[in-house]
Design goal:
The protein has helices spanning 16-26, 45-52, 70-77, 88-96, 102-109, 122-126, 128-139, 165-178, 211-222, 250-261, 303-308, 326-337, 378-396, and strands at 3-8, 30-35, 80-86, 114-118, 143-144, 148-151, 157-161, 186-191, 196-199, 202-204, 226-231, 243-246, 266-269, 276-278, 297-299, 315-322, 341-346, 358-359, 362-365, 370-372, 376-377. It is an alpha/beta fold. The chain has 2 domains: 3-178, Rossmann fold (3-Layer(aba) Sandwich), CATH 3.40.50.1950; 186-281 and 292-396, 3-Layer(aba) Sandwich (Rossmann fold), CATH 3.40.50.10300. The strands form 6 sheets. An 8-stranded mixed β-sheet has the order 12-11-8-13-16-17-19-20, sandwiched between helices. A 5-stranded parallel β-sheet has the order 2-1-3-4-5, with helices on both faces. Helix 1 packs parallel to helix 2 (45-52). The longest helix has 19 residues, at 378-396. The structure holds cytidine-5'-triphosphate (CTP).
C-alpha cells in the first residue's frame, strides 16, 4: 500500500500516536515515525520502533542507514506525511518553514501531502497566533484534522483534544485516494492576464491576479494529475510539479495552448485573456504631447472557443467573469464555445472577482445542471472545479 511518515510532537496526546500507527499498519500501510525531542519524553522511540518495525528518527543527524541522507530519503519516499499530535509550537514552526529538527526538515523537503492533527490546550488552539499559522498552512494545501471538544489533561475544557483515531485514519485514507484519482490524466490550464503591448513600456492588461488558475493547477496536482500551466504575467509562484509555460500576450498564449492541447485530457481556461490588442505596437516609447492619441485595436483569437472546436473526447472547461445577467451570459457562452462546464461569477459581488482570495462560483454543466457554490476560498473553488471535471471524465469512460 502506501508509505506514511508519522510525525509525533510533544503533546500529552503523543501516546495516542501509538494507536494511530497501529491502525494505519492494520490498514496495510508502511509507517515510519519521526519524533520531536519533547515527544521522546512522553513516549519512548523504542515503542514506535517495536510497533512499526522501522527505526525511529529524532535528530537531524540520525542516519539509521549508512550512505543515505535520512531526511531527504524519508521526505521523498513518503506518500503522505501525518503529524499527530501536532503541538502549537510544531504548527508554528511548520508555518514559518523552520527546519530546526528532523520533523520540520522533512516537512519542508517533502512533496507529499501533509495532514495535521492538532492537540493542545483550548486557549492555545484559539489563540490568534496559532490560528494565523493554521490559515497560512491551509493556504499551502495542508489539511487539518480538526481537534474535538473535551476536558484536557490540565483540567481545562474546550476545543483542543486530538481527533479520534478512526477520524484520523479515515482522513489519511481519503487523502491518499484523492492523490490518485487523476493519475495519468493531463490537465492543461491557462491563468493570469495577458499584456498587449502599446509601445515598449506600455501595455493593455487587466486586473487578473492569476490566483484562480494557479489554485486549479495546485488542486489538479493534489489529485495526482500531470499539469501544464500556461501563465500570463503574475507575481505568483507556480506550484511545484507543474510544467510552466510563461507568456505575455494573448497570441503567445494561443500558440502555447495550440501546441499543448493535443496531449491534454482536460483543458481549463482560467486566464483573463485580453480580447483586443493594439493593431500596431510602436517600436519606440511614445513621447508625451498635448494631442489626442487614438489607439486602433484588433481582436485577439478566442483561445478557448478555437480549441474547443477540436476537443474530441477532451473535457473543456471555461470561466466567465460577468458584471450583469451572469447566469444567462454564462449559459450562452457554454453553448457558443461548446464547453462541458463553465464556472461563472459576478465580479461586482462582494468577495468575488479579481485580486481576491475568495470567490462565489456557479457551475453550469453542458447537460443543463446548475450548481451554485457558497462564497469560499479560491483554493476550495479550485477543488470543486477539479472534482466536477473529474466527475464528467469518469461518466464518459
Ligand atoms: N477566453 C479565451 N480567449 C479569449 C477570451 C476568453 O480563452 N480571447 C476564455 C477565458 O479564459 C474564459 C472564457 O473564455 O474561460 C470566457 O472568457 P470571457 O472573457 O468571459 O468571454 P469572452 O468570450 O471574451 O466574452 P465577453 O468578453 O464578450 O464576455
Amino acid at each position: 500500500m502506501s508509505t506514511l511518515l508519522l510525525g509525533v510532537s510533544g503533546s500529552i496526546a503523543a501516546y495516542r500516536a501509538c494507536d494511530i500507527a497501529r491502525e494505519l499498519i492494520h490498514a496495510g500501510h508502511t509507517v515510519r515515525v519521526v519524533m520531536t525531542r519533547s515527544a521522546t519524553r512522553l513516549v519512548s522511540p523504542d515503542t514506535f520502533a517495536a510497533l512499526t518495525g522501522n527505526p525511529v528518527v529524532v535528530d537531524v543527524f540520525d542516519e539509521p542507514e549508512p550512505g543515505q541522507i535520512a531526511h531527504i530519503r524519508l521526505a521523498q519516499e513518503a506518500d503522505l506525511v501525518l503529524i499527530a499530535p501536532a503541538t502549537a509550537h510544531t504548527i508554528a514552526r511548520l508555518a514559518l518553514g523552520l527546519a530546526d529538527d528532523m520533523l520540520t526538515t522533512i516537512a519542508l523537503a517533502t512533496r507529499a501531502p501533509i495532514l495535521i492533527a492538532p492537540a493542545m490546550n483550548p486557549a492555545m488552539w484559539s489563540h490568534p497566533a496559532t490560528q494565523a499559522h493554521v490559515q497560512s498552512l491551509r493556504a499551502r494545501g495542508v489539511v487539518f484534522i480538526e481537534p474535538t471538544y473535551g476536558v484536557m489533561a490540565c483540567g481545562d475544557e474546550g476545543w483542543g483534544k486530538i481527533a479520534d483515531t478512526p477520524v484520523i485514519v479515515q482522513a489519511v485514507q481519503q487523502r491518499l485516494q484523492q492523490a490518485q484519482d487523476l493519475k495519468g490524466v493531463h490537465v492543461l490550464i491557462t491563468a493570469g492576464p495577458t499584456y498587449e503591448p502599446i509601445d515598449p513600456v506600455r501595455f493593455i492588461g487587466n486586473r487578473s491576479s492569476g490566483k484562480m488558475g494557479y489554485a486549479i493547477a495546485e488542486a489538479a496536482l493534489a489529485h495526482g494529475a500531470e499539469v501544464t500551466l500556461i501563465t500570463g504575467p503574475t507575481s505568483l509562484t507556480p506550484p511545484a510539479g507543474a510544467k510552466v509555460v510563461r507568456v505575455q500576450t494573448a497570441q503567445q498564449m494561443f500558440d502555447a495552448v495550440q501546441a499543448a492541447f493535443d496531449a491534454c485530457d482536460v483543458f481549463i481556461a482560467a486566464a483573463a485573456v485580453a480580447d483586443y490588442r493594439p493593431e500596431r505596437p510602436l517600436p519606440h516609447k511614445r513621447k508625451r504631447n498635448s494631442q489626442h492619441w487614438t489607439l486602433r485595436l484588433v481582436a485577439n483569437p478566442d483561445i478557448l472557443g478555437t480549441v474547443a472546436q477540436r476537443k474530441g473526447n477532451r473535457i473543456v472547461v471555461g470561466f466567465a467573469a460577468e458584471t450583469d445577467k451572469a447566469l444567462q451570459h454564462a449559459q450562452e457562452k457554454l453553448k457558443r464555445k461548446g464547453l462541458d462546464l463553465i464556472a461563472v461569477n459576478n465580479v461586482l459581488e462582494p468577495g468575488s472577482g479579481f485580486e481576491m482570495d475568495t470567490n462565489r462560483l456557479t457551475l453550469i454543466y453542458a447537460d443543463g445542471r446548475i450548481e451554485p457554490l457558497p462564497l469560499m476560498s479560491k483554493r476550495e473553488c479550485a477543488n470543486r472545479v477539479i472534482q466536477a471535471a473529474r466527475e464528467i471524465l469518469a461518466r464518459r469512460s
